[in-house]
Every structure is written in C-alpha cells, then in structure tokens.
Structure of Catalase:
Amino acid sequence: DAARSFDTEVGAGGELHQIADDGGDVLTTQQGVRVADDQNSLKVGDRGPTLLEDFHFREKIFHFDHERIPERVVHARGFGVHGTFTLTESLEDHTVAKMLTEVGEQTQMFVRFSTVAGNKGSPDLARDVRGFAAKFYTKEGNWDIVGNNIPVFFIQDAIKFPDMVHAAKQEPDRGFPQAQTAHDNFWDFISLTPESMHMIMWIMSDRTIPRSFRTIEGFGVHTFRLINAEGKGTYVKFHFKPRQGLQSVMWNEAVKINGADPDFHRRDLWDAIDQDTPPEWDLGVQLFDDEFADNFEFDVLDATKLIPEEQIPVRIIGSFVLDARVENFFAETEQVAFCTQNVVPGIGFTNDPLLQGRNFSYLDTQLKRLGSPNFTHIPINQPRGCPVMNFQQDGHMAMRNPKGRVNYEPNSWAGSGPNPRESPTTGYRHFPAEESGRKAQVRSASFADHYSQARQFFISQAPIEQKHIGDALVFELSKVERVDIRQKIVGHLRNIDETLAKVVAGGLGLKELPPKEKAAVEPRTDLPA
Ligand code: HEM
C-alpha cells in the first residue's frame, strides 16, 4: 500500500497532529461529528484533570474497552480466505443440489483454516489437527462443510466432546501446556478412550505438522446423505484434495519455525495469494448405498472410521481456488460462523452421533461468541446467491427486520411488503429415513472395533513415515509424567502393531512391555494396508 501524505502540525506539547487536506477523509466520532483533536483529552488547565464532558474521548475508550469477543471454544486460531468453486461433473443422479448438478456453475466460497487446541495467539506449527471449514454461498442458500485435515475423529459420540476438549486444552489449575499432545491430561483421556486410537495414529503422523495450509487435504469426516429428485438417498463422504500435493515439515523444523515465525502458515497463504499463485483443491466424493454400508467391515456412522479409497474411489466432481484475501480479519475470519447443519436441498444428514451433536453445538456456541441471534446478518455469514426472507425479527443488532405490516404467517395480506410463502416443491425436505428402536443411552456394537483401522493406517505408511509416528509417540509420551499413563498407551499400541509398541516402549525406557489393553473386538489382521 502506498503511503498517504498529510499536512502536519506540531502542538504545544510537541505532539504531532495530522491535518486532513481539502479532499481527504476527515476523522469523525461514531455519530459522524468531525474530530478536531485526537491527541489530547479535554482538561481543566494545561495539567489538570480530564473532563467527563469529553464525549469523543469517552466514546473512543468505551469502544476500545469492548473490542474483544470470546475466542472460539475450539479452533480459536484460524486464517480465512475467499475463493470460487467450479463444478465439472454433475451429480444429478444423486442430488438436487444445484451447486452439485449444474456443470460449469461457479459458487463463491469462504474457507477458514485453523488449529484445534491452541488459543488465538498460539503458534501455527503446533502438532495438531487442522480445521478446513468451507462455506459455499450457493444460489439455494449457504452450505458448509466444516471439515478437518484428518478423515476420522477422536470420539464416536458428541457427548464426549467437552471431555475431549477439556483434556486437550490447557490444564485448568495451571493454564498450560498449550500443546494438544504433550501432557498428562490429554494422554490420560486417550488411554481411557480406545476409540481414539485410530485418530492418534493420524495425529502422530506428519499430517499434523503440515508445510502449509496449501498442502493439506480436507475431509467432511462424517457420512452425509445426498437426496435426488425421486427422494432417493445416497451416502456420501466429502474430500478436498490439494493440487499442490501433500507436504509436511519435520518435527525439529516445526519446533524452530514456531519460535522464529509463529505466523508461518498464515503468512505463507497470504504471500501465495499476493504473488498470484493461489492454491487449488479438487472436490471429491465417495458415494455408496445401503448395500455397501450393510456389508462394510465397519459402521459408516462411526466417525472414527474411514472408507478406504480402494473400496470406494474418490470421484472428483469439481475444484476450487482460494485466491482472495480478506479485507478485514475480524469482520470476516473472526466473525464467520460455520455450522454442520447449514445444508441446502439435496444434501442431508445421517445418524452419526457425532454429527447429530455438532448440529446443535455450532449454532449454540455462536450465539455466545457473536452475541446475538442476528449473526447471520453479518456480511460474511449472509447468503449471496439467493434472497433471505422470513418473519424472524428483532434481537440484538437486527439489520434485517420484516418490512411493512406483516410479520407472521399464514396471513392474508397483500402488497404491504415482502410476504414470503412456503414452497413445497423447491423447499428443503428432510430425508424420510425409517427409524425405530427403544430409547436408551447406547453405543452400537458395530462401533466396537477400535484398532483394526488404526493398524491399517499404520501399515499403509512408508518406513520413514512409520518411524516418524514412533518418534512422535516417544517425544509426546516422554512429556507425560505418570508412568502408568505411558504404559497404558503402549498397551493400546500393542493392539495396533507390536513392533511400534516395542519401539515406543524402548524409547520411553519401559523395562517391560505392558500388557495389551482389553479390546471389545479383537483387531483384524486380514485387512489390506
Ligand atoms: C469449530 C471441525 C467435532 C464443536 C470447528 C471448526 C472446525 C471444526 C473446522 C472451526 C470452524 C471455524 O473455522 O470457524 C470439526 C470436525 C469434527 C468436529 C471435523 C468432527 C468430525 C465437533 C464436535 C463438537 C464440535 C463433536 C461438539 C459437539 C465445535 C465448536 C466450534 C467448532 C463449538 C467453535 C465454533 C465457533 O465458535 O464458531 N469444528 N469439529 N466440533 N467445533 Fe467442531
């Protein structure tokens, strides 16, 4: 940006005044009143007390005092950019969602990359999952894929999420450590939560120390549902595949970079766009039906499992480019509100118990974080491709109230302002899934195999990648003070891979290999890498 020249004056106390030139912008209060002096508060005498009467001073300080809003309860540190999605292959056999059926259609989007456990000021290269949340401003409403760069998750049921996050964040008595992995609480929770072992393998891999946001994948994680014009459902998993390829740093590089440039990832993305080399991703889908779901070795509703691409290949249906930086970090990156329940006609949910909980959580937390049910009126959250019309009104900072007399429906008024009606043919219809069963707090037995896919992931890795996983486990567990927690983790590793368990036990100086942790289902050894 070019520098702007101003006339300047030096005041009696030596302070510098920048005086607006004739055509230039003039400083005003929030009420639009021009400001004569922004360097000195109103006083009695040259050295006297400041007066309450100084409305400009009071307004300025009052506003500053209220600049902060709560940071996100998770994924607090993030970086957002704008982009465009282009569809290259129609999914019209499977969905009525126009964004996924009209080939060549371009849809504006906003993506926020994030780390999960650190607070807003934490370093970019912590070993952590990266959030990859995408908002598509489709012409049928906003559709969000609130994903991560790992295809599976720690837990199977949303009721465990507060515990998992409490254990991963700073310990409450001391306010440290920030790193998700390097502490007793986190590993204590993991050691008692065998369902997390698959995710742990991914977290200890190089995926959690990416070279750049530009070199990570994105996954919708859950099984979602597409719904076509006949009302038929198809299961779907969403994938973002970086055209830049996958790239990570080494752990010792990550540690150094965090010290030298904690903004490494956001600077990298800013520079890439600045230098006109914007990153691109392909959008892919894995599609499958009930027959596949019923015969698959694992439950497709279990977010700790993935569907191997060898079994259901990822079909590329379009791509997106992220080529525009935000103009205002707070207004856009901070105030953007993603939500898994933001779907459009033709896209629906499944009974994944983690997804069901998320559908409640995002809206709820955003009311607290953004302070008003009207956070959808903030420009970054407003639909762009279609009108918004309803009879919701008032609340803090309402920008978009119903106009005219009518604020309810049904009504029989005409012509007194926008008077929207339901649309049975084009409106959102939930998938009419057949449900039955007794009411109970249960976990399906089909969720019980916690080790087979962890093993599948581990043995699919190249030797050097396997070494990095072992090194990472030794490094992180060596920060755990309680030896019994270290032992328990090794006991879980024995259900995944004996050699890995031995490497980690050796690295931790354990004299004996701890007993295997009990498994509800013996891990399978017949699955391909
Ligand atoms: C925020 C992903 C599970 C609650 C986020 C964000 C991402 C994400 C990417 C950051 C959004 C942004 O950039 O603004 C995921 C994935 C999950 C998962 C992929 C599992 C597959 C959960 C669960 C819950 C939850 C189970 C709660 C039951 C939240 C909350 C926020 C958040 C409260 C903060 C939202 C805000 O303040 O705007 N999640 N999450 N997440 N997530 Fe999740």
Observations:
- The two ends are 52 Å apart (CA to CA).
